[in-house]
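## retry 2 of 3
previous attempt timed out at serialization; input unchanged, resubmitting
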Amino acid sequence: MNKNRLKLLAKIFIAVVLLYYLVDYVNYEEIIIALKKSDKQLIILVFLLSFLNIYLQFIKWKVVCNSLIGVFDDNKIWLSLFYGFSGGIATPIRIGEYVGRKLPFENTTLMKVSIATMIEKFASLFLVLIIGGIGGAIFLSKYYTIALAIPILLSITGFVIAILALSKGVKFLRIFLNQLRNKFPFFQNLFMELKYAKELGKESLRKLLTFSLLFYFVYILQYALLVLAFNNGGDFFSAIWAGTIVMFAKSFLSFISFADLGIRESASVFVLSKIGLSKAVGFNSAIFLFLFNLLIPSIIGLFLLIKKDK
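## retry succeeded, writing output
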């Protein structure tokens, strides 16, 4: 058995263990009661918002495909997105998403598609780090101590400074990157491929950041509405705040388990229980978010892949 399969099995095992522990910790009966008493109309609204969620991901990917890959066929871009969903859910660190997105683009290298995907993902990750990091720092300072929040705030500050330095071409960074390129052949090839990223003009970058912000807001809104649905009401802004922290945790700990399962749910249970809501509300909200935004699109992508191979 190769290393990739072992890693995948390990992630699935961790996900199953985490979910089993959570169900046992939360109490299975509480989960069922929360489901039965939930506001079904709000859950349907969240499901409908998942279509907007996917459409915004399509628009983001389209901006990058048009600017960097030279693909303008919307059908291919849609297929690429859904192939990526199904490829990413079943592979370590969602690496299969890059391969999946490449499939409809016959005349483009995997490296270029991977770099384009990373750029598209980075725009959203930037927002997650800034907004979620600040939300997490406030959470830690309120419920624990400000000393725990300081490392997060310092990390955010360092990250922003590094991004600004890279964008302005600061001298010491150029020297460091040139040394890497000269010492390691891999970086020489990588930097050659990365040069084409400059083709993402200011207008395209502005669009990418705008749609990334909208995508982020829709995701957080979905989570908040699910919290209200399973709690039968509550403070909307507290649910939004919790959503920023859950997405932050999911984004930076996703490498631990299969399809982020267990990570998102653990963070949701932990945060919501701290702000006074039941653990069952936290568990159900996170599971339904996974179902609507990842599992269903992945199944559609798998169906399209099977149809393609026939």
